[in-house]
Amino acid sequence: MTKIEIKFFNFLKKHFMFFSFILITFLGLFLRFFGTNFESGDFSVFLKPWWIQIKSLGFGALTTQVGNYNIPYQIIIFLMSFLPIEPIVGYKMLSVVFDIVLSVSAAMLVYELNGRKNKFLALITYAVTLCSLTVVLNSAFWAQCDSIYVSFILLAIYFTLKDRTILPFIMLGLALSFKLQVIFILPFFAFYYILTRKVSILHFLIIPAVDFVMCVPALLFGRNPMDIINVYVDQTNNVKQMYLNIPNIYAFMVDYNDAKMYELLKYFSVILTFTVLAIVLIIMVRKGVNLSDRRIFMLTAVWTVFTCIMLLSSMHERYGYLLDILVIIYALVYRKNIWVAVVCNLVSLRGYCFYLFNLYQVLDLKWASLFYIAAYAYVTFTFIKEILAKPSDNKILKPTTDS
Fold first, then answer.
1. 337-365 tens-digit pLDDT
2. What is the pTM of this model?
3. C-beta of residue 47 within 8 angstroms of C-beta of residue 143
4. What pLDDT, on the 0 to 100 scale, is given for residue 96?
């Protein structure tokens, strides 16, 4: 081997992580290339007409609600409408950029959970996340933007692990400014607040404050400040079904068309979810569970998110996006419950195939529910066994006083 060849291979070895990152990124972009011209029903019926309307309104688009996405997303689409690109390219380009942000955030979180010791595992996490079929289908085929809010949630969890007090809530505020589904992770942060006493209740006010700041450009053009709230209120009122192609516990129910019955069942689902979370929190407080233990920290995050998705009504198939990423991270870091990560992601993939490609016979919703409920039952069993039923030596730190 010549000296040039030796230097070349030594260079590759020295910069292995960088070149692997570039190669994985190109692979992820290549997978997304196949969805470039794919138009989903949501794009044809909603997203494309919204883009056209925003473009036709000009700066008036900042004062008017177009579609049902929150104001910051509408502002971004307004800015992108000035570019010489087609709507389908604009939506997907934005989402694909955040696919990379999401994957980097997941890698950062895994690296931190591992005590910043295993860069290769972080690289694997980046690859698995970026090349996950549901992540690819969500952005490149469906033209949805779930990677945006989940990216910020992962960063919120990351900064929490690093004992930052303000940054996590800024990240949660950014997530809220794009999607209401940030509520799936809020119970976990409530657990963190009560069990660790590392943050103040006032920190939670940062979340709506950041959402407000993100809407300021539209407010300066005369947008009604109440629209910041109303857009999410309207979203919750638009859905009149107990479930929408997601195999949670309500998939075994008859979906009521009666509005009054639906409202009763919707409130019941909220009360049920709140009750389960409250009971578990009380037990954790009495046991003095310490969320500073990183495995307990992540298992609690996974369980609270899974509980919200399983017990709340009116869930869409895409609402499992955050859970899919969290269980991948948990499985990669702790090498446990890998089958749960596989099941959750396959169940989500079933929903995507059902909607995008009309593959109605992939797996019946009720059968998918059995697998999903089994995964949730196992996560709950693990959570009870390793946290609630296990004697804890890590009590909550009591505030100290000077003698």
1. 899 999 999 999 999 998 899 876 677 88
2. 0.93
3. yes
4. 97
Domain assignment present for 344: yes
Q: Which of 38-42, 85-89, 398-402 has the least mean pLDDT?
A: 398-402
Task: Quote the mean pLDDT of the chain.
Answer: 90
AA identity, residue 164: R
Q: Residue 85 domain-assigned? A: no
pLDDT at 325 over 90: yes
Number of domains in the chain: 1
Q: List the end-to-end C-alpha distance of the chain, in Å, as a whole number.
A: 72
- Mapped onto helix, strand or coil, the DSSP state of residue 283 is helix
Give the Cα separation of 253 and 152 in Å (integer): 34
Q: Using an 8 Å Cβ cutoff, are 181 and 316 in contact? A: no
Which pair of structure tokens corresponds to residue 155? 């960063």
- pLDDT beyond 80 at 157: yes
What is the spatial distance between Cα 143 and Cα 136, in angstroms, rounded to a whole number? 10
Compute the distance between CA of residue 218 and CA of residue 72 in angstroms, rounded to an integer: 8
Q: Is residue 324 part of a domain?
A: yes
Rounded to whole angstroms, the Cα distance separating 344 from 45 reads 29
Q: Which helix (H) or strand (E) holds 100?
A: helix 87-113
Domain that holds residue 251: 239-392
Q: Specify the pLDDT at position 258.
A: 62
Please give the pLDDT value at position 234.
Answer: 82
Do the Cβ atoms of 62 and 221 come closer than 8 Å?
yes
List the one residue out of 330, 270, 286 whose CA is nearest residue 129.
330
Look up residue 378 and give its two tokens. Answer: 């196992």
Task: Return the structure tokens found at 6.
Answer: 């030796």
> Can you give the pLDDT at residue 239?
65
* Helices within 288-337 (DSSP H only): 294-311, 321-334
**CA separation for the pair 58, 72 (Å, rounded):** 16
What integer pLDDT is reported at residue 12 of this predicted model?
83
CA 302 to chain centroid, in Å, comes to 11
Contacts of 52 (CB under 8 A, 6+ apart): 87
pLDDT tens-digit series, residues 260-277: 777 788 889 999 999 999
- Give yes or no for a contact between 246 and 320, defined as CB atoms under 8 angstroms apart: yes
The residue assigned the tokens 């929490």 is 160
Rounded (5°) CA angle 139-107-202: 90
Q: At what angle do helices 146-161 and 167-176 cross, to 10 degrees?
A: 170
* Greatest C-alpha distance within the chain: 80
Does residue 8 belong to any structural domain of this protein?
Answer: no
